[in-house]
Please model this.
Amino acid sequence: MFTFRKTALAAVLIGATAGAAFADSHGNPAVKARKQVMGLYAFHLGTLGAMAQGKMDYDAELATKAASNLAALTSLDQSMMWPAGTDSGSMEGTRAKADIWSNFPDVAAKGAALADASMAMKEAAGGGLESLQAAMGPLGGSCGGCHKPYREPES
Amino acid sequence: MFTFRKTALAAVLIGATAGAAFADSHGNPAVKARKQVMGLYAFHLGTLGAMAQGKMDYDAELATKAASNLAALTSLDQSMMWPAGTDSGSMEGTRAKADIWSNFPDVAAKGAALADASMAMKEAAGGGLESLQAAMGPLGGSCGGCHKPYREPES
Model:
């Protein structure tokens, strides 16, 4: 349903410029959905990170809510949000490298690491500021674990 | 942290036009987050609705995945996504009526109805097309149950 591919050949046929050679992600529900999931990770990580860094007063209840939401979000089944042909080489508006689709077992492992680190944060967040801070490193590391190999640098 | 209020008085003081008299929602993380949650509801409801209407072949596994994700999303704690001052009378870029904040017990009941209908869909979606279709009515009704009283019409 959500697969969406424009080939290089099609781009040549329509005489497109380099910029328009790619399909646009805006109309692709799957790409939009995965960006919304990432946005919601960031929203909750923002709260936890602000507390960890002392930019916001530690609040055990709010920290637990944010971490619980994050754990639920990282446990979503994202298989329908990553259809073939939605990589950065095939369309505009995504930084998802094609390597994601050729290294799927590794990508799944990175996702599982994020879910595990989020679950650990859910357990830790309400246990005091130091407990939250200790869980923050592995959680941030699990974000980078996928972004470093599989996300294009910001252009 | 995420509360954000511009008063009518402030608008008068800065001599703003009607359009600029409101704060803009784009910089407000809470408004962005709740829109992302709604977007993810829509993404999964789109799959379930397309199957229910025969626009997409029934697929028990995919239906169950979509419904399970929806159930997880409707169970998120949204309390940090609806800070005071983020209603349509206080800022641009949201259709959330101020009545939400003055009728909170009712709003919470509407949210619980959505979560219940989503859980029922999670149970039903994999049990055949007719089972999915039967769960669709109450689920759609629960969306309208909140949107009708509490969301501004599209302008």
